[in-house]
Specification:
about 75% helix, mainly alpha
Length: about 60
């Protein structure tokens, strides 16, 4: 995997939103979504499917 300028976008989005909105959790969530979209190569369907699978796995681990 190549390192590109896109890897800087999620933290910049999170920091910028935190400064502007003063809502840290919302800003971190936006940064995570931005990172997920970059990892899925901006394919929203793939991102949502991957997010759902990881969320389901996390919930199963918590219930055990």
């Amino acid at each position: 995997m190549e390192t590109t300028f896109l890897s800087l976008l999620p933290p910049l989005i999170a920091i910028g939103m935190a400064i502007i909105t003063r809502k840290v959790l919302l800003s971190l969530g936006a940064g995570i979504v931005a990172a997920g979209l970059i990892l899925s190569q901006l394919n929203i369907g793939e991102f949502l499917l991957s997010f759902g699978v990881h969320l389901q796995e996390s919930l199963l681990i918590v219930e055990s």
